[in-house]
Amino acid sequence: MKLISFTRGDRPGFGAVVEGGVVDLGAALDGKYADLRALLAGDALAEARAAVAQRKPDFALESVTLLPVIPEPGKIWCCGLNYHEHVQETNREVTEQPTFFLRVADSQVGHGQAIVRPRESTQLDYEAEIAVIIGKGGRRIAEADVARHIAGYACYNDGSVRDWQRHTSGCPARTSGAPAASAPGWSPPTRSPSAPA
Asked: Out of 6, 92, 173, 175, which residue is the most buried by the measure of CB atoms under 10 Å away?
């Protein structure tokens, strides 16, 4: 099941892509879940599948503007330097510990939307990533149980402001819209587009 978050006109919604159209899951589930994040938190994927199986598309996919899969996630954890070629191209050493950093919700854009290069940067870089959408929270999860916590996957383009990333470290901070300090995960607004889950 390919799940999306979208706007149609000025109304936000979420649904499933079916036969080139969209089943509006907000309507199909009688407003029981406010958005896709709430549906996942309610462990309601089976309920969504059942609703989709009984419906034809409510409207054409082309009639919606796609949002990030989860527009307001609790956290966006990113794993950097997670494959050998990337470690080499950044002139770093291979270690058993990858780099982790956070992104903020407003650094995401939907599929087909532009990545915005901040005017303070001349070295915006982007790379394809896979996003793991966590449906069921947890901590210190046994490896054998990991799959039960994953709701799905999404294609993602991760944008990095390399000139700021390389010359500083510390907490991300901004003043008057300009970067005051930067970290590997500095996330100016509307930088990392996602595709449907």
From this structure: 6
